[in-house]
Write a structure and sequence with these properties.
Length: 283
């Protein structure tokens, strides 16, 4: 039998504070003690850590984090939920509740880990905000499909721009699949706990803007060959003749121009972007 105590607690709090969960804000509360405990464990939270939680909701994860971490910053956009958090977490002196939109604030500078069940509608925004910060470890729950796209390998169905951009900045791993029944109210899809370890493996990108644009444009031709896609992309800035000359040069140097876009590895994409950058083409 599943432990129903958190489900009862959610219902009781929502009733007492007269809150109807907002779909738009992705308010699905995780109601399984075991899963919450494992999230804290996956991040290895200890008394040396200052942890950020994004979308603290009713504070079930927050209080577990506070029991282990030195300090917890709990960001929550919904003023009604912040009221609940202030009330039920008042006995902890190591929690700072921040009523704000995570995408609009500067992250507290002393944070070194993030553990959160995030609102799914802003998964990308949160992920890239964290990848562009100094925070090295995050354990986050995402929608299952999004997590699959984040962690997909070249040549597989889910591999795309998200997989490439994430993989150049971090090591990402799905740790668990969480069926939707562990949330209240249950969302339409399952979730996944993902660990993100930020690093700088591909710091050899010579111009990040070119790389970013190239990846975006190439993946709009996902099933085409690199040769075809490059003609389409370079035709405007370099002209068709020059595009063909460039492609021939790539072929002579052993570039995989017959591969399809979704088969290209991140390092192949980086090499290509660097070539395009040194030729001076605009993408
Ligand atoms: N962490 C809680 C709640 C998850 S639901 C739990 O595990 O049960 C996602 C939470 O994110 C909701 O409480 C929602 O109000 C909050 N939220 C949605 N958009 C947000 C944003 N832009 N910034 C901060 N919090 C947000």
């Amino acid at each position: 039998m599943r432990d129903r105590s958190l489900l009862l607690e959610v219902k009781e709090l929502l009733r007492r504070y007269e809150i109807i969960p907002s779909k738009r804000l992705g308010q699905h509360f995780l109601i399984d003690e075991g899963i919450l405990d494992r999230e804290v464990k996956y991040a290895g939270v200890s008394a040396e850590d200052t942890v950020l939680e994004i979308g603290a909701g009713l504070g079930f994860l927050t209080r577990k984090l506070a029991e282990r971490a030195r300090h917890v910053y709990a960001v929550e956009i919904d003023r009604r939920l912040c009221q609940v958090l202030n009330d039920i977490l008042s006995k902890y002196d190591n929690i700072t509740i921040i009523n704000a939109d995570i995408l609009k604030i500067e992250l507290p500078p002393d944070v070194n880990k993030v553990v959160a069940n995030i609102p799914y509608s802003i998964s990308s925004g949160i992920t890239f905000k964290l990848l562009n910060s100094k925070i090295s470890l995050s354990v986050l729950t995402y929608q299952w499909e999004f997590a699959r796209r984040m962690t997909a390998r070249p040549g597989t169905k889910c591999y795309g721009r998200l997989s490439v951009m994430v993989s150049i900045m971090a090591d990402v791993e799905i740790l668990e699949r969480i069926p939707r029944i562990y949330f209240f109210p249950p969302p339409d899809v399952d979730s996944a706990i993902v660990r993100i370890l930020r690093r700088n493996k591909y710091s050899n990108i010579r111009n990040f803007k070119i790389f970013e644009n190239l990846v975006r444009r190439l993946f709009s031709f996902k099933g085409k060959t690199l040769r075809k896609a490059l003609i389409m992309i370079l035709r405007k800035s370099a002209g068709k003749e020059e595009a063909l000359t460039f492609i021939n040069k790539l072929e002579k140097e052993g570039y995989p121009i017959k591969k399809r876009i979704f088969e290209l590895t991140p390092s192949e994409l980086i090499n290509l972007a660097n070539m395009i950058y040194s030729e001076g083409y605009d993408v």
